[in-house]
Amino acid sequence: LKKRLRYFRNAVYHDSSMADAYYQMGVLYEQRGEGNEALKNFKRTVDHDHTHVAAYLRVGRHYPEQDDLPSAFRYIFHASRHASRLNSKDISFYLGWYFERKNDKKSAVRFYGDAVERGYQDPELNLKLGIFSFLLNRDELMIEQMKILQDLRRTDLAGQLKFLSNISNEIEVNTCGIRR
Q1: How far, in Å, CA of 14 to CA of 149, rounded?
Q2: Is the pTM of this model over 0.85?
Q3: Residues of the chain under the 70 pLDDT cut
Q4: Are 52 and 36 in contact (CB under 8 A)?
């Protein structure tokens, strides 16, 4: 990681307008667990390239860690303004994520559901949709998500979804003691 960081720092030293170099440094800082440095570099990315959707999403994802949900939403909204159809599923996912953090499960379900409809694939997202649907008395959606998880488990020949073997335990843990 140090070598790659040095490479991108050198690139920025020679041309400070290289938005992708800032973005790559942000990704590397994230990998190192240095959230503040990552955030600085993602912000520099959008300063130099106002259409860099991935950087807007990453900035939006870092703000809740600082208890600044309005800024998170602002950056996610900016990403949605520049998003193409190819990454609209990501925008829907992050909007769901934002509303989940705000404890607005109804809006979270709406955007998470939209992300799934647009092709976002993540078994944990299906699990969240199932649990939130249960809590919101939307049994049909809950059952649909559980069937998707069950199908994923059956077709996972490589065992990549090992955590789903405990799916019933997860649901019990996450919904235990919570009344609709």
Answers
A1: 49
A2: no
A3: 64-67, 83-87, 152-180
A4: no
